[in-house]
Write a structure and sequence with these properties.
seven-stranded mixed sheet; globular; alpha+beta; single chain; 32% strand; 158 residues; 25% helix
Length: 158
């Protein structure tokens, strides 16, 4: 199957259409390190994310990004997934990772978790745009979840 990448954005915080809260879902700030790497591999391997097969050197560069912020998605005290985002020029924030580990996929946590991550990205001072990308290799619910939360496509390369 040919991969099709879709880039999505919000250009105002009030475009976020929050999902209903799920009791027990929370975000926790995390430091870059082995846990982030492990989560990327666990989340991304089923979808062939490039991060799932990064070399040690590539991971060192990724984790050294000085402005990237990491979040653990927790459900009732267990790590259920991960997200990270990075401020960029022009007051934009890119959500560079969002996903759940396989054992928490399909339990109704994704919408709430995404709402919390997007709200954190918008909370960075001066943010005027939040964006991310997904592809046809991602979980089939990824794109619909992003659209339900208020993201809109701004480009879809051929």
């Amino acid at each position: 199957m040919e991969e099709i990448v879709t880039q999505l954005e919000m250009t105002a915080a009030d475009q976020l259409n929050p999902a209903p809260l799920v009791d027990g879902v929370a975000l926790r700030s995390a430091r870059p390190g082995p846990l982030i790497r492990e989560l990327h591999v666990r989340i991304g391997t089923p979808y062939r994310w490039p991060s799932a097969s990064r070399s040690d050197e590539e991971w060192a560069r990724w984790l050294a990004a000085p402005r990237r912020e990491y979040r653990l998605i927790e459900y009732r005290g267990e790590v259920a997934g991960a997200a990270d985002f990075e401020p960029q020029p022009g007051n934009a924030v890119e959500i560079t990772t969002f996903g759940l580990v396989p054992e928490f996929v399909g339990k109704g946590l994704g919408g709430c978790a995404l709402t919390l991550v997007v709200a954190d990205a918008w909370a960075l001072p001066g943010t005027r745009r939040v964006w991310l990308h997904t592809s046809t290799l991602d979980h089939p619910n990824a794109l619909p979840n992003y659209l339900r939360r208020g993201f809109r496509s701004f480009s879809r390369p051929a």
